[in-house]
Amino acid sequence: MTLNRRLMARLLTALAVGSPAAALAETKPADDTAKLAFFEKKIRPMLVEHCYACHSAETKPAGNLRVDDHKGLLTGGNTGAAVVPGNPAKSLLLTRTSTGDAKRRMPVQGEHLSEEQLADLKTWIADGAVWPKPKIPASLGKGKPEYDQLKKDHWAWQPLKQPAVPTVKDTAWAKDDLDRFVLAKLEEKKLPPVADADKTTLIRRITFDLTGLPPTPAEIDAFVKDGSSDAFAKVVDRLLASPAFGERWGRHWLDVARYGESTGPSRNIPYPHAWKYRDYVIDSVNADVPYNRFITEQVAGDLLPAATPAERDRLLTATGFLALGVKDVNQRFKVRFVMDNVDEQVDAVTRSTLALTVSCARCHDHKFDPIPTTDYYALAGIFTSTDNCAGVRNKMGGGGLDYYDPAMLVKLSSTAPAADPEKVKKLEAELAVAKKAWDEIRGTPKGLAKAPNGQPVQRPFRLKYEALQAEFNGLTDPAQAGHAVHGVRDAKTIADTEVRLRGEAEKLGPVVPRGFLSVLNVPEVKGINPAQSGRLELAKWLTSPNNPLASRVAVNRVWQHLFGRGIVSTSDNFGINGDVPANPELLDHLAGRFVQDGWSVKKLVRAVVLSRSYQLGNDAPATHLTADPANKLIWRHTPRRLDAEEIRDAALQVVGTLDRARPAASPAKELRMVEMRDNGPEAKNINEAADKTEHRSVYLPLLRGVTPKSLAPFDPVDQTLVSGNRETTNVPGQALFLLNSAFVRQHSLLLAEKLLKEKDASDAARIEKAYRLAFGRLPTAKETDRANAFIGEYESSFRQQPVAVEKPKVEPKTPAKKDEAAAPIIDPDQVDQTGESVVEADVKAKDGRTAAWLAFVQALIGSAEFRYVR
Question: d(Cα 354, Cα 760) in Å, to the nearest integer?
Fold first, then answer.
């Protein structure tokens, strides 16, 4: 009590003279100048001489301990904190350098610390383990002078407007208010819209856009014959209700979510449970989960209430969005590994939902957008307070299961079937005996001696132990039984984080309270629950109706997928370096409408595709091309090339082999979380599985760096970054794939054989059917004549070729008659760009007629009309 009164008296005295600064000075620690001088003279040289060789940034830190970094000392390595300021007895750095146990005393090599050095170390720790503080830039937290003006001027930061629907001259043209916004701009530029698309073109367009698949001939016929005023609306509603809608539009979100089934660079570790997040996305899109709820589940699903265990598991799975990014597990320092993963999460969240490059502020204030470094670390603190439960850990140069951390997976509510207790008990006993035998021999001269096979004598003991350990884990680890997901959870330690000066993880600046970007004012989200990470409040802030970017970004992405170009063409960047809206009033009209309709993506898509603007033809008058070559104002419907998944899926559907059922999981499910070697057996097996399956492309395994061969040529998504806008190229490799790949040739053969089996059909009827399957239309008379001529000439030429000798792996058969020769269509030694022989499909074409029809079908699949939707 006496001490408390004395402190209170000193505080009141300071306040009495009107000096709050003086009151604070009473509680300031004593000047550390002398302690810092002691550290630099006595402690740092000692650490450099005796410890840096094994415990610094210059090497792989033994025991994950760094002594060249203050935070590294305080955090410690595998056995706990190395230094506890003020408490030498609990500081492992002192106890391990002074212990009498020769085997445990540090340093392992070289001279031990002298009694004088140990005394200095004890004094330094007892005095608070003072460490020089880095120089804090004077500008930190103040932002750039131009930030205030940018906040006032740039369109993206402004609140949503409610623009009045414009009056247009051609009052009969518009079907929807959005059409009036489009037409007003066109009339202003004197660019009348082109005529509407014909019904055959329109149903092919809408079916691809909503499902990623071509319409069947029966669907085309039904639509063309339906003369009712709501014929197109009925088609749209059917497609929106189809499971294929979720598969197509779920794939759009997976692009944005940088979905992948492995960690990626350096050492590529599989994510065997990633497919559950993929299925969560598809199911959510099909169920039309409101977009604001969809985002909230992925950012903070584990913090939301759930009525049932199944709903709890669904919400836990949703957080895979934050866990499935690229990770450098070969990073030697844990603090860098953690901060790199936090940066990846900040980037994924902000670019996907806000289209802002917030990660540019990790090292310095954003060069262009009004995002100071302190804003970045306000968000970073939310994720440093979150466990990234991807199931991996960092270890430089690890092997086997070193990178697998089962404790860092999210366990599902459902429980694995109980393991046979007798089997578990038996395995435990066997493990004890193997391990004992290995411990007795490993590292000894006997164990290291070479056996007759050249391997160390101890190796069989290790292999036996590891095999038993794997079997035991398979019985007792829920993750190995599939009862886990890659996701996130709140960390045990919830705290704000420090600014990392120049972005360097170990260089700590001032602590920044957790919070949000100061460029956007969302008044109803006032702060963060100090007992939680802050992800729930972040989700509310991201999806608030008062956050103008969330709804603008979402509707812009929808517009881009339906028109080939967003109203803002830079769909992942709404900042200063991004594009400006081609029609800002239309963008805000759609964003406001989206929110008012309960953030329903299906309602938004339906409204857009039922508009007159969407249903325009693709004519391109020269005057229009000159005035608006990019078609920013929507005077026509711009043709687009199908993406990689659509091309593969369309080929399978045209041939009739597409499996529309959802597979049970992913081939990656069977992979252990160990490093996959470049071009090793794991990658080969995954590629083989992708080649064999005829499920939709969204279900193909997508290990980073192991792209399925049937997708690779056609600009598949980059799985390392948020990718709202895929590249579309037209390069020779695509033509070579369509000409030479086993996938295209084998499936062309299947359709050729089906056409030829229709015995009562004429060749003209077969050609007509092939055209309808491939292009959704009938051939013209000229096209039919040309196809007949091609088939006839090809068959004749085929019969004149010499008999080919198959590859050595196939025994030659009795020569066939000349007109039945199984001559190859191309050089039997030719391989596709993946190195796979393409002769297999050719030798199945045992007669010239089959070979000719194979070539004809392949020509259709390889044509520009097949690859483009108009």
Answer: 60
Q: Hey, what are 31's tokens?
A: 């000047």
Alpha carbon 623 to chain centroid distance? 42
How far, in Å, CA of 505 to CA of 322, rounded?
Answer: 20
Q: What is the pLDDT of residues 351-403, one digit of tens each?
A: 999 999 999 999 999 999 999 999 999 999 999 999 999 999 999 888 888 89
**Ranges of H-type helices in 91-146:** 92-98, 115-126
- At 628 the three-state DSSP class reads coil
Sequence letter at residue 363? C
Contact partners, residue 604, CB within 8 Å, separation at least 6: 555, 558, 590, 593, 594, 597
End-to-end, the C-alpha distance of the chain in Å comes to 85
Average pLDDT over the chain, rounded to an integer: 89
What is the DSSP secondary-structure string of 310-361? HHHHHHHHHTHHHHSS---TT-S-HHHHHHHHHHHHHHHHHHHHH---GGGG
pLDDT at 837 over 50: no
Q: Give me the long-range contacts of 470-477 (CB less than 8 A, separation at least 24).
A: 471/427, 472/424, 472/427, 472/428, 472/431, 473/406, 475/419, 475/420, 475/423, 475/424, 475/427, 476/419, 476/424, 477/406
Region label for 790, one of left (φ > 0), alpha (ψ between -120 and 50) or beta (otherwise): alpha
The 3-state DSSP class for residue 753 equals helix
Specify the higher pLDDT residue, 463 or 291.
Answer: 291
How confident is the model over 630-648, as a mean pLDDT? 98
Q: How confident is the model at residue 1 (pLDDT cuts 50, 70, 90)?
A: very low
| The pLDDT of residue 177 | 98
The per-residue pLDDT for 722 is: 96
What's this model's pTM, rounded to 2 decimal places?
Answer: 0.86
HSE of 484 in the Cβ direction (CA atoms, 13 Å)?
A: 23
- The string over 570-608, giving b where at least 16 C-beta atoms fall within 10 Å of a residue's C-beta and e elsewhere, is bbbbbbeebeebbbbbbbbbbbbbbbeeebbbbbbbbbb
- Chain-centre distance for alpha carbon 565: 22
- Integer-rounded Cα radius of gyration of the chain: 33
Sorted by sequence, the CB contacts under 8 Å of residue 199 that are 6+ apart come out as 223, 224
Q: Is 551 in contact with 520 (CB distance < 8 Å)?
A: no
Range list of H helices, 127-192: 147-153, 177-188
Question: Which is nearest to 642 in space by CA: 208, 255, 198, 197?
Answer: 208
How large is the average pLDDT for residues 519-534?
A: 94
Q: Give the whole-angstrom CA distance, residue 704 versus residue 709.
A: 13
Residue 868's SS3 state is strand
386 phi and psi angles, rounded to 5 deg: -125, 130
Closest CA to 286 of 319, 315, 248: 248
Count helices and strands in the chain by DSSP H and E runs: 36, 8
Q: Give the H or E element holding residue 803.
A: none
Report the residue count for the chain.
870
Backbone angles phi, psi at 58, to 5 degrees: -80, -5
Residue 237 has which token pair? Answer: 């509603």
| Cα(236)–Cα(239) distance, integer angstroms | 5
Contacts of 34 (CB under 8 A, 6+ apart): none
Rounded CA gap, 602 and 242, in Å?
12
The pLDDT tens digits of the residues spanning 582-606 come to 999 999 999 999 999 999 999 999 9
Q: Is the pLDDT of residue 825 over 70?
A: no
Query: From CA 475, how far away is CA 455, in angstroms rounded?
Result: 31
Longest Cα separation, the chain: 116
Q: How many beta carbons lie within 10 A of that of residue 625, not counting itself?
A: 13
Q: What is the pLDDT of residues 806-816, one digit of tens each?
A: 444 444 444 44
Q: Minimal CA–CA distance to 724: which of 567, 578, 573?
A: 573
Q: How far apart are CA 108 and CA 179, in angstroms?
A: 77
